[in-house]
Amino acid sequence: MAKRAMVKMAALAIGAASLAGVMPASASASPQSVQLCQDSGAALKYKYYTSSGTIATWSKTCSGSYSLNSGGYSIYAGGWSGYVYFSDGTSSDFCDGETRYLGGRRVVKIYMAAAKIEECV
Fold it and tell me: In tens digits, what is the pLDDT along the chain, a chain of 121 residues?
């Protein structure tokens, strides 16, 4: 009985907080907060220049925002769409199956969308 009473008290407290505007009455997830993963065959592959001048590969299979700081060589989208952000404040989109050459521009972030971005529809 004590457990049931505690649950009722918690529910009442949450309801009161909601009515008082302390917390939202409901929560929802935006597409940006949902993480989606695909198998390795659909991986995004980002090639970049290392400090020694060789080209290395960074590969991801889950949606999300990834911070980087490297000179970009290319990005192969695999089964993904999203955006590459550069240090000069500009960005470029990429769509499923595309390869984009980045010309050594400094990449600061790659965003892999959980759903196809508008530019790729």
Answer: 444 444 344 444 444 444 444 434 433 334 455 789 999 999 999 999 999 999 999 999 999 999 999 999 999 999 999 999 999 999 999 999 999 999 999 999 999 999 999 999 9
Helix (H) or strand (E) segment spanning residue 6: helix 2-19
From residue 54, how far is each of 35, 51, 75, 99 by CA, in Å? Answer: 32, 8, 16, 19
Q: Can you list the domains of the chain with their CATH numbers? A: 32-120 (2.60.20)
Residues 6 or more apart in contact with residue 55 via CB below 8 angstroms: 47, 48, 49, 73
Q: pTM, whole model, 2 decimals?
A: 0.72
